[in-house]
Design goal:
It is built from 5 helices and 5 strands. It has about 160 residues and is α+β, with helices and mostly antiparallel strands. A 5-stranded mixed β-sheet has the order 1-2-3-5-4, with helices on one face. Strand 2 and strand 3 form a beta hairpin. Helix 3 runs parallel beside helix 5. It is elongated. It starts with 14 loop residues before the first strand and ends with a helix.
């Protein structure tokens, strides 16, 4: 696309900071080299279909994924999703979500302003393009879904 003179938006690799256990337990994949290989493969995933494929492979080779690995797969799913919306950083702390957007990313600032105006005090925007809100969901999966819905509304 770049060679054709079309504008190519760089892929954002979001940072995600959440208080959950998300890893491949050594009891699940006992061989260190294999576990590292899967971490490398997981870090390169680019879409939902690839997540489903590797989940199936893990299940076939090692059995049902344990909760920390299922959490990791959900975090990777969120990371892919946030990347599409030019979110540079996602933080969940003290029951507050902080989304940091890439300047001049996929989200139009006027849509964020509209969200804040319609939100009745639910949302705040900082000068450095960080959107803050208190989610209604009480578990992290619900927070992920809520964030996804908010971002979809901004497109």
């Amino acid at each position: 696309r770049e060679l054709k003179g079309e504008e190519v938006q760089e892929r954002v690799t979001p940072e995600i900071h959440i208080p959950i256990e998300a890893f491949i337990p050594p009891e699940y994949i006992t061989n260190d080299n294999q576990r590292l290989l899967f971490y490398k493969r997981l870090s390169a995933l680019q879409d939902e279909e690839e997540i489903e494929e590797i989940t199936g492979e893990l299940r076939d080779r090692f059995g049902p994924p344990p909760p920390p690995l299922l959490n990791l797969l959900e975090v990777i799913r969120l990371k892919i999703w946030l990347s599409q919306f030019s979110v540079q950083r996602f933080e969940l702390r003290d029951n507050r979500v902080v989304l940091t957007f890439v300047p001049e990313g996929a989200i139009a600032p006027e849509k964020v302003v509209h969200l804040i105006q319609q939100g009745g005090g639910t949302y705040q925007l900082t000068p450095d393009m960080r959107l803050l809100y208190t989610p209604t969901a009480r578990d992290w999966r619900g927070v992920f879904d809520e964030t996804r819905n908010i971002l979809q509304g901004l497109m």
